[in-house]
Amino acid sequence: MRDAVSSLTATVVIQASNIVSGIFLARYLQPDGRGELAAVMLWPTVIAAIGIFGLHEAIAYHAARRLHGGRAILRGGLLIGGLLSLALMPIGAVVVSLVFPEHEADEVRHAAYLYLLFIPLTFFGQFLVALFQGSLRFGAWNFLRTSVHIFTLALIFIAHYADEGGVLGFAAASLIANALMIVVACVLYARADWHLSAPDVKRRPWRDLTSYGASVHLGAAVSIIADRLDQMIISLFLPAADLGLFVIALTLSRLPLVLASTLSTVAFPKIASMSEHGDRIDVFGRYTRVALLTILPSALGLAALTPWLLPFFFGEAFAAATPLAWLLIVAAVPLSLKTMLSAGFKACDRGWIVSQAEIATLVLSAGALALLVPAFGLFGAAAASVVAQGGALVFMALRARKTLGISPADLFVPRRSDIDVILQTVDELRQAATRRLRPAK
């Protein structure tokens, strides 16, 4: 679990950076401005997630399976990603023109057009990071995924103290941070040996990438729509301040998801690298059970602290988001477990099951939103998330039993060995912290 320890350390740094930036943005912009910034970033993010065609996951998978040389894998991904970016940017411009009409504030509309640059930046950045992840170079992978958040935090403060704060300035800070991360990734890439295996000249990487990407793309695209559908509905039909409250509540509620995301990103290449089906299933089940044992206590603790955390960190203006946060914390538990199951299915080359699950999530979310938002507003949107994520988790557990032969008990009933793994990981974290705090001789 050493890789999990280093990844968890990186995730703690990422989360700390996000918390600091989130607190600053919330206090500086207040609910109205925070909602406007969320809307500006929302639509390009959704377009990029839909249009990436699963290429980042395909790169990680093929790097883990060592089917091609690393350089060939990246060249194939960049070729397809560049073509996709050229097609998606005009689509994004049309969406922005519809969502942010001429009567909107000039700064918000200009920021929305500027943030379309996020599409090519996130493509190239994710492709580079995925190559490091799939090749099990977790040191570089953790450094890169951490750096973009640190860059973002630093640039937000620079924009503020340079009197360039506001929606436009903070959107630009996010873009520059992504560009800086790509520069760092290119330096690390140039210094690494990427001959992961002897390339098979008869196989073309871009064909394998598109084939695998197609198998997971539908699930990923539907997933991002299902995950952001509530925010899209709020941004279109409710005031910007409502979106600001919802985004802060959602940010706080997703803290348990950090643990699942860390474990899933470590588990994915390890499951995929196993040659025997039985070994893959054992690793799959162990990581899912460990995730459950860490997610539930963290969710309960977070719920207890929420009434104090929101006003203390984000300001009294966001205290009204406490009931929203409670509902979203409940939804975060099945969402976190879904993240683990998705990684396991993809690593076992069953990406189509993830697609089915995300379609189920979208259908449940759309139906619940249609019924609950008109009657209960923001609280209806939060309750819809509980319904959608819970139903989708049940679906995935049933599909795991049917297609992989792994029972719900193997996934969700903890074993003594799982507790031992957690205790070992905690001890490794303690030892690592002790070594770093010990003064040099």
Characterise the protein shown here:
This protein has helices at residues 2-51, 55-65, 70-99, 106-114, 118-134, 138-161, 167-191, 205-237, 240-253, 255-272, 277-314, 322-347, 351-376, 378-403, 408-412, 416-437. The protein is mainly alpha-helical and 441 residues long. The longest helix has 50 residues, at 2-51. The two termini are 29 Å apart.
Helices and strands, in order, run as HHHHHHHHHHHHHHHH
Cα end-to-end separation: 29 Å
Number of helices: 16
Assembly of the depicted chains: single chain
Query: Approximately how much beta-strand content do the residues carry?
Result: under 5%
Précis, in short:
The protein is an all-alpha fold and 441 residues long.
Summary tags:
single chain, 85% helix, globular, 0% strand, mainly alpha, 441 residues, 16 helices
Secondary structure layout:
Elements: H1 2-51, H2 55-65, H3 70-99, H4 106-114, H5 118-134, H6 138-161, H7 167-191, H8 205-237, H9 240-253, H10 255-272, H11 277-314, H12 322-347, H13 351-376, H14 378-403, H15 408-412, H16 416-437
Helix pairs in contact: 1-3, 1-4, 1-5, 1-6, 1-7, 1-8, 1-9, 1-10, 1-16, 2-3, 2-5, 2-8, 2-10, 3-5, 3-8, 4-7, 5-6, 5-7, 6-7, 8-13, 9-11, 9-12, 10-11, 10-12, 11-12, 11-16, 12-13, 12-14, 13-14
